[in-house]
Amino acid sequence: MRTMWKGSIQFGLVYIPIKLYTATEDKDIRLRMLHKECMSPINYTRTCSKCGKAVANEDIIKGYEYTPGQFVALSEKELDDLQEDVDKHIEIINFVKLSEIDPIYYEKSYFIGPDSGNGLRAFSLLKQAIQDSEKIGIANIIIRSKQHLAAIRSFENGMLLETLYYPDEVRKIQEVPGLGDLTAENAQKEMDIANQLINQLTTEFKPDQYKDDYRLKLEKLIEEKVSGIPVEQKKDKVAQHNVVDLLSALEASVKETKPKRKTTTRRRKTV
Known about the structure:
Blueprint (H helix, E strand, L loop, with lengths): L4 E7 L2 E9 L39 E6 L2 E5 L1 H8 L5 E8 L9 E9 L5 H14 L2 E8 L2 E10 L2 E7 L23 H14 L11 H15 L18 H12 L14
Parallel strand pairs: 1-5
Antiparallel strand pairs: 1-2, 2-6, 3-4, 5-7, 6-9, 7-8, 8-9
Helix pairs in contact: 3-5
């Protein structure tokens, strides 16, 4: 597993050398843009929007558009100076309960691993202390020139760091159109059936039972086309009409998801 960040966790006056490893991976199948005539990949070049010339990497600088068409240039040194030494360590600011953080704030997960043998004792101590407290540490971290809020928690036999969105990065749900038109009360019978449907669909969360059906189908399609197997043409699906009667739709859903009883056959006693 490749290290993507190296530094330390500051726990009070204790510094624990650590490394971060990406905990998740994107398994999306990447499709290339091809020229239809010769089936070759399309190349993209960086060009200047004003003069139209291709621009080499060494001639590209960063800047901010403070008004339409007007930019201020920012050098790499100026940006680096803003970070000072904060990109070298993660300082735990507070400890909170995991239940107090809404999932909307979670961004990306990283495994935390010890960086040296000398820090193993402190690493183990912090992991055990967080686990026993049933709380998570809140900290700041800079990854790839961007500061993130982060949650540090115990995870299996190690620790996990999850970057969080800052509050001003999470949009207000009040901005969603139509929410003000929701009815304050719902029919009791419809509510009872809706709750019954939820109960019937309630189960223990087992991650292994979920899969990316579209990706599996796309992989199969690509394998068949590479092997020269003719692709089966599926019939067009019949358009589904919206159900106007909400109560009827709920009742039909409950009936469809109702667990089937196991049929047992009784053996006759032989005399």
